[in-house]
């Protein structure tokens, strides 16, 4: 008898969790009013999606009846409609902080995941929170959730005495699906009850399986939809007022147009004419002591929205487009550089992306930048001349991504940069694969990349290839891999790559709990090993062992710590800035601790101390990060961040005979130095409602390096004392950025933004260790620049205009 009950239990589990849930929808001809009431009779005529199951923290646990969720789906020829009743036996405890778009805040939320191809590869995800705020993203298992993608859709939430209600309208223009007469979509519904930090889904998402997007349920019944023309215009106009000490206050009027056209139900054309990026977020500039450039985040919407296809293979670094000029102006000793533009202006940019019924994704991106000149003055004759630092340049990316078996893909990608005239051109092609077993238990992924660079009748080419194998399910997981990069591999015309000429081996093993214990809601630990060898000599360039532990307590406080160890001396071929030369880095032992208290509390904080000790006399580094935050009410919150980092007796490059004729030939100088960084940031917001927000973002950064003595790099990689060098190579950088903005989403897809920005930067070789003096001296009329701008963009649907006319 016991065996019969056991078999019955297994069958129940398999039927309840092993099969995809199915929901039937219905076509409607009547109009749905989005008021959060669900009082139209048609809502009662379709089946309900209910019986949600917990995703986190207690994976697989059924939801309590008094916190159940009931969802219905309707559709017409324009959009799908979602109505949800979210029950809560303590409605007065529902968290509902008001926040800006794509920021959930401290609030309950409900989400809809849609995969129009039902291929388990990508979800279009739409969320609303209990404060009536919206968020949306594209989600893939390989890239995670991308919230830079924004769609135009509508929603309304209403709080009730039994919980809250959600009503959503998602136009077909915001989705991708095939042109079949009868549609079957992969769909899941998601809910978080914030005060419990409990997340639930309609179709069970098994955390033992290393995939999220392949565990959707199914919505059936969508048939014979006659989708409207997907043609949208987004005209915008901006006015800027500039003020600084060097120039009188002046104004500038800008305008432009973005176009979005649905070539069919699967493919979309996006075009940006006369772009305006004046209101994008400022870059967090640092004092960069490394031999590599600083990498910045992309803040321009055109290059972040819907670019998941273009991220394949990590060959596309969009900041190259419209970034700094590729050439540095050459000047004689009697000449002075008056103006060297920090960025290159765009003429236009276009992208086409989509996916066929057979799972073939196609992406094409093209951008053209203008000629850019620097200005040089001859101090003897006072003559002014212009020097070309960036010619007319064309950038494009082409991607073919074939999905199969609902969990695997093969991708061919090409990036190409063509500069007009006798300037450098770059081309990179890659084959990328991501293969999973049927049950998503094992994964094999990797790439093979080939670069070809033309530099004035000379060429160089190289390869970069990676192979990785992993177990991706269960409590215990692991992965092993290898990477090879040839000396002349160069993807930096449209990508970003720092290290070349090496081969590496790496591995990782991890353990995690899938359900809460008496102590932890979540717990995972990782051990990582990475070893890198210089390809030509076989010398060890990197050797690291890392242990990381991350957990959350029953009260939803996060605690993590880790240790990292470099057990052998390594050969650094990058710091000397000279081909074939290297310095030897000592063994190293470091550690960190991180604590983050529950953000549900009005007051919360993050704290993160770290330390590292190197096997050299008095050489060490240590840092401290502290970030208190306070939520005054559902409208107002502030977050302060302080970050301090210090390196004692750090050794680094300062000069060489290649750059200084006074030094003997083949001389490379290092400095024994102390490097200190301070970062103070304040972020705040006041939300009138989910459509109107005031935002504050301020950052003061101060960093300096103080050289104690100079060292000569010997051919064996060791450093020896070098006397007689008297140049001041100390560095001191102060930067200030302040953004205060008002944003009003006055209609779906339409926004008014008022922004005040002030910024200043001061770099010199004189070190003043008085923190207050550094700060106040920066904020004066000489160094400060001010910008006041107003921008309006308006979303126009061709169909609405057509109907009006």
What is this entry, summarized?
The protein is globular. The protein contains three helices and 45 strands.
Give the SSE layout.
Layout: H1 2-18, E1 22-24, E2 26-27, E3 53-56, E4 69-75, E5 79-87, E6 109-115, E7 123-129, E8 134-140, E9 144-146, E10 154-159, E11 163-171, E12 182-193, E13 198-201, E14 217-223, E15 231-244, E16 247-262, E17 268-273, E18 335-339, E19 346-355, E20 360-369, E21 372-378, E22 384-390, E23 393-404, E24 408-419, E25 425-436, E26 442-455, E27 458-471, E28 476-485, E29 502-512, E30 520-534, E31 540-553, E32 558-566, E33 570-572, E34 583-585, E35 588-596, E36 603-614, E37 620-631, E38 636-656, E39 668-689, E40 692-713, E41 719-721, E42 731-747, E43 750-764, H2 771-778, E44 785-793, E45 796-797, H3 798-804
Key terms:
9-stranded mixed beta sheet, 24-stranded antiparallel beta barrel, 45 strands, disordered N terminus, about 800 residues, single chain, mainly beta
């Amino acid at each position: 008898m016991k065996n019969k009950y056991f078999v019955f239990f297994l069958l129940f589990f398999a039927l309840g969790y092993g099969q995809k849930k199915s929901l039937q929808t219905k076509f409607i001809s009547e109009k749905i009013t989005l008021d959060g009431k669900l009082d139209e009779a048609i809502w009662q005529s379709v089946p309900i999606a209910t019986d949600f199951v917990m995703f986190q923290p207690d994976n697989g646990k059924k939801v309590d009846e008094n916190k159940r969720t009931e969802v219905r789906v309707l559709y017409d020829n324009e959009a799908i409609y979602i109505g949800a009743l979210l029950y809560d036996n303590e409605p007065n405890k529902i968290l509902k902080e008001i926040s800006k778009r794509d920021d959930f805040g401290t609030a309950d939320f409900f989400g809809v995941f849609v995969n129009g191809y039902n291929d388990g590869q990508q979800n279009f995800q739409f969320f609303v929170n209990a404060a009536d705020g919206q968020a949306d993203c594209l989600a893939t298992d390989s890239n995670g959730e991308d919230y830079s993608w924004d769609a135009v859709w509508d929603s309304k939430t209403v709080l009730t005495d039994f919980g809250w209600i959600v009503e959503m309208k998602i136009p077909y223009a915001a989705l991708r699906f095939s042109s079949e007469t009868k549609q079957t979509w992969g769909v899941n519904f998601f809910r978080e009850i914030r005060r419990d930090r409990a997340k639930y889904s309609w179709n069970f998402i098994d955390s033992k399986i290393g995939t999220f997007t392949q565990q959707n349920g199914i919505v059936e019944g969508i048939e014979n939809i006659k989708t409207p023309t997907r043609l949208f215009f987004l005209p915008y106009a901006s006015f800027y007022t500039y003020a600084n000490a060097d120039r009188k206050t002046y104004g500038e009027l800008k305008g432009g147009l973005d176009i979005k056209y649905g070539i069919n139900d699967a493919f979309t054309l996006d075009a940006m004419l006369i772009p305006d990026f004046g209101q994008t977020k400022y870059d967090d500039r640092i004092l960069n002591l490394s031999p590599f450039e600083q990498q910045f985040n992309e803040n321009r919407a055109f290059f972040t929205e819907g670019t998941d296809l273009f991220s394949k293979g990590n060959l596309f670094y969009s900041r190259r487009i419209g970034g700094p000029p590729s050439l540095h102006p050459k000047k004689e000793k009697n000449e002075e550089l008056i103006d060297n533009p920090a960025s290159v202006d765009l003429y236009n940019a276009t992208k086409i992306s989509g996916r066929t019924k057979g799972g073939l994704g196609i992406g094409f991106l093209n951008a053209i930048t203008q000629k850019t000149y620097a200005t040089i003055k001859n101090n003897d004759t006072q003559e002014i001349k212009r020097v070309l630092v960036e010619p007319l340049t064309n950038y494009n990316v082409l991607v073919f991504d074939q999905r199969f078996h609902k969990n695997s893909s093969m991708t061919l990608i090409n990036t190409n940069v063509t500069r007009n005239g006798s300037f450098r051109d770059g081309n990179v092609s890659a084959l990328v694969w991501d293969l999973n077993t049927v049950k998503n238990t094992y994964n094999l992924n990797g790439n093979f990349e080939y670069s070809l660079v033309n530099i004035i009748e000379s060429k160089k080419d190289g390869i970069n290839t990676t192979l990785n194998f992993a177990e991706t399910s269960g409590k215990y997981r692991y992965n092993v891999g290898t990477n090879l990069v040839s000396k002349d591999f160069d993807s930096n015309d449209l990508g970003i790559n720092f290290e070349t000429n090496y081969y590496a081996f790496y591995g990782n093993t991890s353990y995690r709990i899938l359900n809460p214990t008496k102590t932890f809601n979540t717990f995972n630990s990782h051990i990582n090993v990475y070893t890198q060898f210089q390809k030509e000599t076989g010398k060890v360039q990197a050797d690291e062992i890392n242990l990381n532990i991350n957990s959350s307590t029953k009260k939803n406080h996060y605690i993590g710590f880790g240790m990292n160890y470099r057990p052998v001396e390594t050969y650094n071929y990058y710091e000397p800035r000279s081909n074939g030369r290297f310095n030897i880095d000592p063994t190293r032992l470091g550690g960190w601790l991180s604590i983050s208290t529950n953000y549900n509390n009005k007051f919360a904080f993050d704290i993160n101390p770290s330390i590292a000790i190197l096997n050299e006399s008095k050489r060490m580094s240590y840092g401290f990060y502290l970030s208190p935050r306070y939520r005054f009410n559902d409208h107002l919150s502030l977050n302060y961040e302080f970050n301090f980092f210090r390196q004692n007796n750090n050794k680094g490059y300062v000069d060489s005979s290649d750059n200084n004729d006074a030094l003997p030939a083949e001389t490379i100088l290092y400095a024994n130095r102390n490097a200190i960084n301070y970062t103070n940031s304040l972020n705040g917001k006041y939300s009138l409602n989910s459509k109107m927000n005031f935002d504050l973002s301020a950052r003061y950064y101060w960093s300096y390096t103080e050289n104690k003595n100079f060292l000569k790099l010997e051919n064996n990689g060791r450093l020896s004392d070098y006397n007689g060098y008297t140049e001041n190579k100390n560095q001191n950088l102060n930067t200030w950025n302040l953004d205060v903005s008002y944003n009003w989403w006055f209609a779906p897809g339409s926004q008014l933004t008022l922004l005040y920005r002030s910024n200043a930067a001061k770099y010199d070789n004189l070190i003043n260790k008085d923190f207050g003096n550094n700060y106040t001296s920066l904020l004066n009329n000489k160094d400060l620049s001010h910008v006041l701008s107003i921008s309006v963009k308006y979303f126009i649907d061709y169909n609405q205009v057509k109907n009006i006319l």
